[in-house]
Amino acid sequence: MVYYARFLWPNMFPCMVLLLFWSLLALWEGRQYHLALIGIWLGVALQLQPTGVLLVPFLALYLVLFRPPLHSRRYALLGVLAFVLLFAPAIIHDLTHGLVETVPG
């Protein structure tokens, strides 16, 4: 039995997915600032659990099928910037260590 664990993601990943779904619903209702929040929730989810990458096709499918009203590109750019900033440490680590996280084995 494990008494102490050093992993945070088993408890937080479902919360990020729930926040992501909430933001998608709010975006469909017309609240544009949730585009920025989607970038944040996705960036955090991918940091917590690598299988969070499976959320990306779901997001693309959602945007194609439901076509939520996108009136402002400012929030979309803010979301992309938030995602990139949240992923910057992992990207910098991979680039400075010979892409060790991308090589299998």
List the uncertain runs.
Answer: none
Helix content: 55-70%
- Termini separation comes to 28 Å
Mean pLDDT: 85
In percent, how much strand structure appears in the residues?
under 5%
Q: From the alpha-carbon coordinates, what is the Rg to the nearest angstrom?
A: 16 Å
Main beta sheet strand tally, sense and closure: none
How would you describe the shape?
globular
Compute the number of helices.
4
Counting helices, strands and paired strands, the structural category is: mainly alpha
**Strand segment count:** 0
Order of helices and strands: HHHH
Keywords:
105 residues, single chain, globular, mainly alpha, 4 helices
Layout of helices and strands, plus pairs?
Layout: H1 9-28, H2 34-48, H3 55-66, H4 73-96
Structure description:
With 105 residues, the protein is mainly alpha-helical. The protein is built from four helices and no strands. It has helices at residues 9-28, 34-48, 55-66, 73-96. Helix 1 packs antiparallel against helix 2 (34-48) and helix 2 packs parallel to helix 4. The chain is globular and about 45 Å long.
In short:
Helix content is 68%, strand content 0%.
